[in-house]
Amino acid sequence: MTDKKTSSRRRETKAEQAARVGRILEALDREYGREYRCYLNHETPWQLLIAVIMSAQCTDARVNIVTERLFKKYDSLKAFAEASLKELEKDIHSTGFYHMKAKNIIACCRDLVEKYQGRVPETIEELTSLAGVGRKTANVIRGNIYNEPSIVVDTHVKRISRKLGLTKETAPEKIEYDLMKVLPRDHWILWNIHIITLGRTICVARRPKCDICFLKENCPGREA
Predict the structure, then answer these.
(1) How open is the CA angle 195-198-200, to the nearest 5 degrees?
(2) Checking phi first, is residue 109 left (phi over 0); if not, alpha (psi -120 to 50) or beta?
(3) What's the predicted TM-score (pTM) here?
(4) What's the rounded Cα separation, in Å, for the pair 143 and 150?
(5) pLDDT for 51-65, tens place per residue?
(6) Residue closest to 137 by CA, chosen among 198, 199, 56
(7) Closest Cα to residue 150, out of 116, 120, 123?
(8) What crossing angle do the helices spanning 135-144 and 45-54 adopt, rounded to 10°?
(9) How far apart are CA 45 and CA 14, in angstroms?
(10) Residue ranges at the known binding site for [4Fe-4S] cluster
């Protein structure tokens, strides 16, 4: 329904889109501020990396409940690298897909210990070479740990960016590249932070509150 509505409108020029994106970013900044926030609790880069691996198909709130105990039990990369697969599966069972997640966490931590001397690497190539780490996870690390401008495409960013008419793609990597073209670099990290908040409170997937949304005048996919 959204795609039909969007396609029926006159094609937006690049200048018009740039002006509309500017209004969207200004409204998001005004509503949510420009402070960087991470919704996954962590104290070290490797803790964040493990938390993000566990967050696949799981809520941040659930991951935070699990990691509160998990990071006390396994208090170092070495502890995770030497963990029993069956025991770690039990520890993270409630996050779902626990077998693959536990397997990836152990393999990832072994590589961090053996290949990177306990340091979480910075480049997208090094990060995505680790078990369980795709572009989304890598960009979370690059943005939150190294303050490297990066766009994280999660379910909220995918859905709302399409709704706002900033991409027609469905593949996360293609969406990332589309957004890199239309968003200024100083908002690449903020885009994920702002859109997660919007998606959880107003632009809710099952029942978007378009009538009270502060972006409705700049959203071609809004519901009537």
Answers:
(1) 110
(2) alpha
(3) 0.86
(4) 6
(5) 999 999 999 999 999
(6) 56
(7) 123
(8) 150
(9) 39
(10) 203, 210, 213, 219
Residue where the block lists tokens 């890598």: 138
Of 88, 145, 153, which Cα lies nearest the Cα of 120? 145
Q: Could you tell me how far CA 21 lies from the centroid of its own chain?
A: 20
Half-sphere exposure in the Cβ direction for 23 (13 Å, CA): 12
168 classed as catalytic: no
Q: What domains appear along the chain, each with residue ranges and CATH number?
A: 2-36+150-218 (1.10.1670.10), 45-144 (1.10.340.30)
Q: Which of 224, 195, 197, 192 is nearest to 210 (CA)?
A: 224
Q: Which of 91, 111, 136, 163 is catalytic?
A: 136
Mean pLDDT, residues 26-30 taken together: 98
Annotated catalytic residue within 5, 78, 103, 154: 154
**111 noted as active-site residue:** no
Q: CB neighbours (10 Å) of residue 14?
A: 9
Q: If you search the block for the tokens 């903020």, which residue do you land on?
A: 190
Q: Which residues are annotated as a binding site?
A: 203, 210, 213, 219
